[in-house]
Design brief:
Blueprint lengths: L8 H8 L3 H19 L4 E4 L4 H13 L4 E5 L6 H7 L5 E4 L5 H8 L6 H11 L3 H8 L12 H4 L14 H18 L2 E3 L8 H10 L2 E2 L6 E2 L7 H11 L10 E3 L5 E3 L20 H9 L1 H10 L2 H16 L1
Parallel strand pairs: 1-2, 1-4, 2-3
Antiparallel strand pairs: 5-6, 7-8
Helix pairs in contact: 5-9, 6-7, 12-13
Length: 316
């Protein structure tokens, strides 16, 4: 049976193509609608220190200065990100219950992305839906065009290390969910539909404000693109965290950062194969002590060597 969506893929593409000033107005409308329902004391803004969440922070605080922001300090962010967060008022800091080393020992690394890592972990336990996904087949055992991409990563089933998507869940999502349960507040988050198939599907199901979902939240910038984020920063002249460097126009005419394109966990291997593992070379130059801890204390050196060999052999 075909899944029903609140937003059609065609409407999402239309919204993504709108001018930035139109998107800004739409985002403000969605924030206003969400806050009208729960009040300024009934919502919070999820602030990671990344450029997406900071753009949303800039918009929300311009409308509702009193709304609390919540930051999860995993100790895995760039130190400059943590310093960047400290300059803002009314920001609550949460801590995860487990550290990254414990999570890696118990659950493994997240590679190449959350959805594949989650599927690999479940398939290794013999969970039927995951096994079918890794084989690239649907529930009837027939080849599935969408699931074919999972089959491309089937060699990860034999990886000599644990793989799962639990690190983000344990270190970032669970502290926020616990805070929501204790405070009763609903989150406003800077998730973009273009970032992943999972986020795109979530947006199509609920739209920006998911009032009827099990976890109510607002994603008021879901139809923005990466270029929208960068153009907003440039046009409004707001400073972003130092790890991004400066924003320049590339040869293709698109804006890009001279430093990190994405921040988050310094050690996270998600997507690292797409740019030749360059993030780790930058980390070594940025802070050799952190690099050595990541590679040798956490064991990422062994993981990356295996990934480099097998991704090159299986994916080229």
């Amino acid at each position: 049976m075909e899944e029903k969506y609140a937003i059609s893929p065609e409407l999402l593409r239309y919204r993504q193509a709108l001018p930035l000033y139109v998107k800004e107005g739409m985002t403000r409308d969605r924030i206003r609608n969400f806050v009208d329902r729960y009040g300024t004391d009934g919502v919070y803004l999820s602030l990671s220190g990344g450029k997406d969440s900071y753009v949303l922070f800039n918009i929300v605080r311009s409308m509702y200065p009193s709304i609390e922001a919540v930051y999860v300090d995993t100790w895995m962010e760039f130190p400059q990100i943590r310093s960047f967060i400290k300059q803002f008022d009314n920001v609550r800091t949460l801590k995860p219950k487990k550290g990254l080393k414990q999570i890696i020992e118990e659950c493994g690394w997240c590679f190449p992305g959350k959805e594949v890592a989650n599927t690999v972990e479940a398939a290794r336990r013999g969970v039927p839906w995951a096994v079918r996904k890794m084989n690239g087949t649907d529930k009837n055992g027939m080849p599935d065009k969408y699931r074919k991409r999972f089959n491309n990563w089937s060699f990860l089933m034999d990886a000599p290390f644990l793989i799962s998507d639990q690190c983000c869940l344990e270190m970032k999502e669970n502290p926020l969910i616990q805070y929501e349960n204790e405070s009763g507040k609903k989150p406003i988050v800077a998730l973009l539909a273009e970032e992943s198939e999972r986020r795109k599907t979530a947006y199509l199901k609920t739209g920006c404000n998911s009032f009827a979902s099990r976890r109510v939240m607002s994603k008021p910038m879901a139809f923005w693109t990466e270029q929208d984020i960068l153009w907003y920063i440039v046009r409004h002249n707001i400073g972003i965290a130092p790890p991004y460097g400066n924003i320049i126009k590339g040869r293709d005419g698109k804006l890009q950062c001279t430093g990190e394109q994405r921040t988050g966990c310094m050690f996270c291997p998600v997507g690292c194969h797409l740019n030749g593992f360059a993030k780790y070379r930058r980390l070594r130059e940025y802070n050799r002590q952190l690099y050595d801890y990541c590679m040798y204390e956490l064991g990422l050196d062994f993981v990356l060597k295996w990934i480099k060999e097998n991704v090159r052999c299986r994916m080229d």
